[in-house]
Design a protein that fits this description.
heterodimer; B: four-stranded antiparallel sheet
Chain lengths: ~110, ~110
């Protein structure tokens, strides 16, 4: 079974600060997704990365897939209170094309105004 | 992406009862999954809902506790049977699709068992 560890688990920062969330595994994923979940809502897909070393930008969010496709990072520049939420990474289970995703342990971010 | 709706959105149930959660998708999808998210936790896959056949359950989940139906490519139900407070969670219906097989989530059903 593939596992995805996220760090930090909790993060509380002031508006305007930068932060990085890490998603690590000992296993290789063919693709990896990042989600944000707000209280009372289901997770919302932010980005999918598929190529080792790939970097994708979504406004103030920068996502990177590790060269070996075992890890990923999410960097937020000048965080805003609207960025508050639970951030989840998810990688596809390479088990014989099952189309299942394994979710990371989650990073709960709070941005204070 | 598919639009997914779930009913009920939330419920409070008594110990020992059962609740059936419905998931409706606005288009035909091949893959549908049921996940559970316990308070403060990440998501755990319960089972893959297979159209026209028995669901495929993950380790730690059994059909007697979480029976699943999927009569067609747009609809599925998950029943939480003989509930206990430990079953209090958000239950999420998810489909997969798109170029990279991304997963898309329903709004979830927030279940509280007293």
């Amino acid at each position: 079974t593939q596992l995805l560890e996220q760090s930090p688990q909790f993060l509380s920062i002031q508006e305007g600060e930068n932060l990085t969330v890490y998603c690590n595994s000992s296993s290789v994923f063919s693709s990896l997704q990042w989600y944000r979940q707000e209280p009372g809502e289901g997770p919302v897909l932010l980005v999918t990365v598929v190529t080792g070393g790939e970097v994708k930008k979504l406004k103030r969010l920068t996502f990177q897939f590790g060269d070996a496709r075992k890890d990923s990072s999410l960097h937020i520049t000048a965080a805003q209170p609207g960025d508050t939420g639970l951030y989840l990474c998810a990688g596809d289970d390479l088990g014989l094309g099952t189309y299942k995703y394994i979710f990371g342990t989650g990073t709960r971010l709070k941005v204070l105004a | 992406s598919a639009v997914i709706s779930q009913k009920p959105s939330r419920d409070i149930c008594q110990r020992g009862t059962s609740l059936t959660i419905q998931c409706q998708v606005d288009s035909q999808v091949t893959m549908m999954f049921w996940y559970r998210q316990q308070p403060g936790q990440s998501l755990t896959l319960i089972a893959t809902a297979n159209q026209g056949s028995e669901a495929t359950y993950e380790s730690g989940f059994v059909i007697d506790k979480f029976p699943i139906s999927r009569p067609n490519l747009t609809f599925s139900t998950l029943t939480v049977s003989n509930m206990s407070p430990e079953d209090s969670s958000i239950y999420l219906c998810i489909t997969s699709g798109g170029k990279y097989n991304e997963q898309f989530f329903g709004p979830g059903t927030r279940l509280t068992v007293l």
